[in-house]
Write a structure and sequence with these properties.
By secondary structure, the chain is α+β, with helices and mostly antiparallel strands. It has a domain at 3-29 and 62-106. The protein contains three helices and six strands. Strands 5-2-1-6 form a four-stranded antiparallel beta sheet, with no helix packed on it. A two-stranded antiparallel ribbon has the order 3-4. The two termini are 15 Å apart.
Length: 112
């Protein structure tokens, strides 16, 4: 888990999960645009002979880092939880951690 690579923090609107994204957003794009445009092969269509078709399924992109949900850490080991809390503490103090559904923040290049 490379927390130093995070350039954008995004609060998923439906579950309030916090995600770290390792690259800045292009103008006019938001993390939700990327979340909703993830492409995966549709195995059902492939099995039926429609090779080359893809299906859009919401989800994180490669390299995105799950930083937990309010009140729930899921499967994360305790050492990862502690590392995330340590990483986020100075960002929270600066008001750089999104708190509302769908909010996102581009972090300064040099983050703690």
């Amino acid at each position: 888990m490379d927390l130093a690579s995070i350039r954008v923090l995004w609060r998923r609107p439906d579950s309030m999960e916090l995600w770290g994204i390792p690259y800045p957003m292009r103008p006019g794009r938001s993390p939700r645009d990327l979340w909703e445009s993830t492409w995966i092969p549709d195995t059902c269509k492939t099995a039926a002979g429609y090779l080359g078709r893809f299906l859009t399924v919401p989800g994180p992109r490669d390299g995105w880092i799950w930083l937990g949900c309010p009140g729930w850490w899921g499967h994360l080991p305790e050492e990862h939880q502690a590392a995330i809390q340590t990483y986020l503490k100075p960002l929270k103090a600066q008001g750089l951690v999104p708190g509302g559904p769908g909010e996102w923040v581009e972090l300064p290049f040099e983050t703690p």
